């Protein structure tokens, strides 16, 4: 369990994290989404105590990380592929981290095995590809067999097979009842992995909801004769929908396609076209983060 | 699984981690190896070029100035200080320059514990390396010197001068570490370390009035090193005071690195 409360981080006049409050619960994968520069990595660094917030706090299983004994047994973190000394061998890198928490070399070798680096464990990290470094970072996160895992952009630099592997790993860790918190700027990745999403933009919380809800919030496109347009908007709004107009028709949110059809039929309005817009997370995300400029409809009623 | 392991992570765990880190990078071997080659080679060459006629001179510890100094071939040890200093710098700056520090601080979130563990590994390693180097080179050079010039460790307080070399080497390593803790990046840290140790400390007396230059010079790093390592019985500032002043420099530099460590972002 990760509890973030009223977190604020400013660098000079720039506010990177602006009053974030949310909790990451065990037993599922929580995706942490936002455009580049939204404050995801900063939030993770704050959670790990690498940086200090001006306001707010982060608790991991009820306490700040530094208050935990053997922190690696509480939280495992994949920060970035650069959080290593490139001159050290993969195995010695892990051995040093493990030793700091009283974890033995056998566990180091088991983790190297698990991430598929056992064969190159003696090689200096300098010689590793980005994908191999990501695997090494994941091995470091797993060292203490922790119940809270944070992965910052774990699929960066991985090939499709590696991406599939990370996805399965995160699902497995969550299925064991662990708290898995994974950041990404790629929505599609989360659609296949996460149960719950925390979406931020410019350091602020935009959404904190089960992935089902965010997807369900997608819209219905409907086209009616121009003469009936105003009438249709009024009827749909009265039925509880949020209606926007775009060039070709109306975009309705908050009502299912069936319900939109019913309402219009009941009002005697001819329906020229009715389509459920693909319920993709991508749309929900773009909408939340304000990135969908091309498809942004003009609000005409609510 | 690591079930069955109980009890908190302790200082000894951090110590073990730092021990592994120190010996698993090449830079440690480069630094110590450079000193291990330079000092004896310079010493043997210097000893071999000694003039047997100098046996007629008084020994250095018998006179306030001049005389024959059988430890002269060990002067290379004072020049090899940069290797100890750079080792001290790298122990911490390599972590900041590479990003390793972020991994290290997740494993050991108490920063002063992390830094203290590094220091607690660095000091004995520097001390042992310096002792092997100083005493090894001493016996080597005395074997090379003509018999009439050579001394034993008990002659003229030579062992005290050798311990002084060890102590000064440890001081320089600690000072380098402190600079690395404050400045963080390797290139900048090494530059600052070299600038302070070899430039500022040498130039410092020149900014004082002529009448004070000698006095100030005695309290620079080099001046204090001379007090600790010379056979000459110079009463000012004397070995105990010189050691205390160096310890004070080290403490001040460490305080500048360690006190703000918990607050600074990484």
UniProtKB/TrEMBL annotation, chain A:
Keyword match Protein biosynthesis: no
Keyword flag Nucleotide-binding: yes
Keywords recorded for this protein, A-Z: ATP-binding, Nucleotide-binding, Transport
Gene Ontology molecular function: ATP binding; ATP hydrolysis activity
Domain ABC transporter as annotated: residue spans: 2-227
PANTHER family linked: ABC TRANSPORTER, ATP-BINDING PROTEIN
Recorded family membership: Belongs to the ABC transporter superfamily.
Protein known as: ATP-binding cassette domain-containing protein
